[in-house]
Design a protein that fits this description.
Elements (H helix, E strand, L loop, with lengths): L2 E5 L4 H12 L3 E6 L18 E5 L14 E4 L6 H6 L1 H22 L2 E7 L26 H21 L3 E6 L2 E2 L10 H11 L3 E4 L5 E3 L1 E2 H13 L6 E3 L4 E3 H12 L5 E4 L14 H7 L7 H13 L12
Parallel strand pairs: 1-2, 1-4, 2-3, 4-5, 5-6, 6-11, 7-10, 8-13
Antiparallel strand pairs: 9-12
Helix pairs in contact: 1-6, 3-4, 5-7
The structure holds nicotinamide-adenine-dinucleotide and uridine-5'-diphosphate (UDP).
Uridine-5'-diphosphate (UDP) binds next to helix 5 and strand 8.
InterPro entries: NAD(P)-bd_dom (IPR016040), NAD(P)-bd_dom_sf (IPR036291), UXS-like (IPR044516)
GO molecular function: NAD+ binding; UDP-glucuronate decarboxylase activity
Subcellular location: Golgi apparatus, Golgi stack membrane
């Protein structure tokens, strides 16, 4: 039985990865300090003999017993309000955290896959974004703590690959959504759906002309699984190229939820990228991967999930 360590395993993406690797017959070790995650995302796995949970901060020395084939480093605050609230922890998990994972991988002879992000492209001057684009990031702006941590994470991972011959994989994840996102994490989809469910107007930042391209979580997990098992060590974009303005996205959520509320404009956060769309030529060619779930279908599944949460969760503040 292959053994995989998933850091950030109690988070949105990490918990879906735990499910996938369990389904594929792996022994899964999830490690998480629960700073932005939720133990309920993985509780359904606790009874399994091939699942273990380690409550631990990855930025501190890490060790797990036994052999290890793969490490997936997904621990990191991921939403703007999270990483603005805990900027130093964000920088630490993207630097000390990945250093610990790479060290553990050398000891165990494991392959490492890191969760990088479309944020390495910053507010991009090239559109759509291919992996060759180096990005346009403000290192000292509010988003710099996340973007630069992720850029450092790519650099150190590549250095371990080049200088130590470690097997490494880098996935650049574009905006992904689905069940188990936190309703209060401030990202646009849970924000809009939460507002619709509470009977509040939907807050569009700026004039809503900025774009994003939203990928359903199952498609992302499939891409990550294929990349891990591939022999490609350079960054690969995984995302859904279907691009939409945030204003149009708000209108879609109004239609989906049937709310009587409307869109209201609020200030645009500093350094908010104006456009974002993945160029997935590489993922198609190397992994034979492309997204399968339409936004209409993915949003319906996600809305059903949020609608069925206990009502008090609608009113829980982020921190
Ligand atoms: P999330 O907040 O739901 O999950 C992150 C998990 O990491 C949480 O469970 C959190 O408790 C844990 N964590 C954070 N710091 C830790 C530490 N020091 N030690 C141990 N655990 C720690 O966010 P997510 O959306 O699931 O994102 C997961 C990963 O994917 C992140 O690395 C994020 O940067 C990356 N990513 C996500 C998206 C997206 O659209 N969801 C896009 C690009 C990149
Ligand atoms: N956004 C918005 N209203 C909200 C939350 C976010 O208009 O209540 C906008 C935000 O300014 C950004 C886009 O939606 O332009 C996506 O934001 P999110 O935080 O989901 O992801 P990111 O900016 O990291 O891509």
């Amino acid at each position: 039985m292959k053994r995989v360590l998933i850091t950030g395993g109690a988070g949105f993406l990490g918990s879906h990865l735990c499910d996938r690797f369990i389904k594929e017959g792996y022994h899964v070790m999830a490690m998480d300090n629960l700073i932005t995650g939720d133990i309920r995302n993985i509780e359904h796995l606790f009874h399994l003999p091939n699942f273990e949970f380690y409550h631990h901060d990855v930025s501190k020395y890490i060790h797990v017993p036994g052999e290890l084939d793969y490490i997936l480093h997904f621990a990191s605050p991921a939403s703007p309000i999270d990483y603005l609230k805990i900027p130093i922890q964000t920088l630490k998990v993207g630097s000390l955290g990945i250093h610990n994972c790479l060290g553990l991988a050398r000891v165990k002879g494991a392959r490492v896959l890191i969760a990088s992000t479309s944020e390495v492209y910053g507010d991009p001057n090239v559109h759509p974004q291919p992996e060759e684009y180096w990005g346009n990031v403000n290192p000292i702006g509010p988003r710099g703590v996340y973007d630069e941590a992720k850029r450092f994470q790519e650099a150190i991972t590549m250095a371990y690959h080049t200088y130590h011959g470690l097997e490494t994989r880098i996935v650049r994840i574009f905006n992904t959504y689905g069940p188990r996102m936190r309703l209060n994490d401030g990202r646009v989809l849970p924000a809009f759906i939460g507002q619709a469910l509470r009977g509040e107007d939907l807050t569009v930042f700026g004039d809503g002309s900025q774009t994003r391209s939203f990928c359903y979580v199952d498609d992302l997990v499939e891409g990550i699984y294929r990349l891990l098992l591939s022999d490609y060590a350079y960054p690969v974009n995984i995302g859904n190229p279907s691009e939409i303005t945030i204003k149009e996205f708000g209108e879609e959520i109004i239609k989906l939820t049937g709310t009587k509320q409307k869109l209201v404009l609020k200030d645009l956060p500093v350094d908010d990228p104006k456009q974002r769309q993945p160029d997935i030529t590489k993922a198609k060619a190397i992994l034979d991967w492309e997204p399968k779930v339409s936004r209409e279908e993915g949003l319906r599944i996600t809305y059903d999930y949020f609608k069925n949460l206990p009502e008090e969760e609608l009113y829980t503040a982020a921190y």
